Amino acid sequence: AQSVSQHNHHVILSEAASLELGCNYSYGGTVNLFWYVQYPGQHLQLLLKYFSGDPLVKGIKGFEAEFIKSKFSFNLRKPSVQWSDTAEYFCAVAKAAGNKLTFGGGTRVLVKP
Amino acid sequence: DAGVTQSPTHLIKTRGQQVTLRCSPKSGHDTVSWYQQALGQGPQFIFQYYEEEERQRGNFPDRFSGHQFPNYSSELNVNALLLGDSALYLCASSRRVGQGYQPQHFGDGTRLSIL
């Protein structure tokens, strides 16, 4: 069975600081990888996805993620956060060509102005 | 272009009762998945419907059942409610493309509280 682990439950940082959220998954086959974000009071939104090709993927709002197959990791990064990046971030994995998402437990990010 | 819509927004039930939650997918989407999100946790996959049939199922008991209608909308039914069923229930829709799917779009969820 697939599983996804997010290393940090809570992250607090100041505006302009860099952000990196860790995500590791366990599944031996080909996977599709996702980061979803949930802003306060809003629904889950897709931040970025990796299906194949360049392992460095760029998403919306200046976020990027790097897929390292040998480490089963898909870490999310943003060089300089803003107060509006305060949200909960979820890493998710699906088998390639599949549609069943397995989510990590989420990381709550608080950006102080 | 409406996104995924779910109803009701909130629901309060008592143990042993039955509940039906509803979902209308994003326009152009034909696949609906349901997830349960307990407080402080990530969403857990319940099941997925495509062409009015359950195609995949997660580790949920038979008390959880669903349906998809010809217009692609879907219902989630939960029988014999338990306190542990209290959670946010999320509906997600996507479009099947070839042998795969486009990424899922999520609704706002239905908050179910069991007393």
Radius of gyration of chain B: 13 Å
Number of helices of chain B: 0
Number of strands of chain B: 13
**Helix run count of chain A:** 0
The major sheet of chain B is characterized as:
7 strands, mixed
Q: Mean of residue pLDDT of chain A?
A: 94
Helix content of chain A: under 10%
Q: Based on helices, strands and strand pairing, what is the structural class of chain B?
A: mainly beta
Q: Beta fraction of the residues of chain B?
A: over 45%
Can you give me a brief rundown of this structure?
The complex is a heterodimer of chains A (113) and B (115). Chain A is an all-beta fold and 113 residues long.
What does this protein structure show overall?
The complex is a heterodimer of chains A (113) and B (115). Chain A has 113 residues and is an all-beta fold. Helices cover 0% and strands 54% of the residues of chain A. Chain A has strands at residues 3-6, 10-14, 19-21, 23-26, 31-38, 45-50, 56-58, 64-68, 73-78, 87-95, 102-103, 107-112. In chain A, the strands form 3 sheets. In chain A, strands 2, 5, 6, 10, 11 and 12 form a 6-stranded mixed β-sheet that branches. In chain A, strands 3-9-8-7 form a 4-stranded antiparallel β-sheet, with no helix packed on it. Chain A has a two-stranded antiparallel sheet with strand order 1-4. Helices cover 0% and strands 53% of the residues of chain B. In chain B, strands 2, 4, 5, 6, 9, 12 and 13 form a 7-stranded mixed β-sheet that branches. The model of chain B has no long low-confidence stretch (mean pLDDT 95). The chains are: A mainly beta (113), B mainly beta (115). The interface between A and B is medium-sized, with 22 and 28 residues.
